């Protein structure tokens, strides 16, 4: 998804570049995906009221994406502060849950 930050005017996508090497033999990425990764400027931050939320990596603003123009609405400082804590807590818990599952799987293998 292409976005424009209503706070600082930055533009870009929410397609995060791969953090790790792609496995050997994996099909090459399409050029359009590579371009989107190069333009990465917005971090995926879950959703609020069923609409996607993104964090602008340039100015740190929280942005809610809506159907109708203006499509990108800046969350108020209070909304964003509250939502950020909620999302980051959830993300930590989710990460811990996945790590526990991986540990269990590894134990079952032995
Ligand atoms: Zn911004």
General description of the model:
With 110 residues, the chain is of the alpha+beta class. It has 2 helices and 6 strands, in the order E-E-H-E-E-E-E-H. The protein has helices at 31-38, 77-109, and strands spanning 2-4, 11-13, 42-48, 51-56, 62-65, 72-74. The strands form 2 sheets. It has a 4-stranded antiparallel sheet with strand order 3-4-5-6, covered by helices on one side. Strand 1 (2-4) and strand 2 (11-13) form a beta hairpin. The chain is flat, with a radius of gyration of 17 Å. 15% of the residues are buried. Bound molecules: zinc ion. Zinc ion binds at residues 5, 7-8, 10, 56, 58-59, 61.
- Main beta sheet strand tally, sense and closure: 4 strands, antiparallel
Give the overall form. Answer: flat
* Bound compounds: zinc ion
Low-confidence stretches: none
Give the structural class: alpha+beta
- Rg from Cα: 17 Å
| Average residue pLDDT | 93
SSE ordering: EEHEEEEH
Strand coverage percent: 15-25%
Percent helix:
25-40%
**What is the number of beta strands?**
6
* Contiguous helical run count: 2
Strands side by side in the biggest sheet? 3-4-5-6
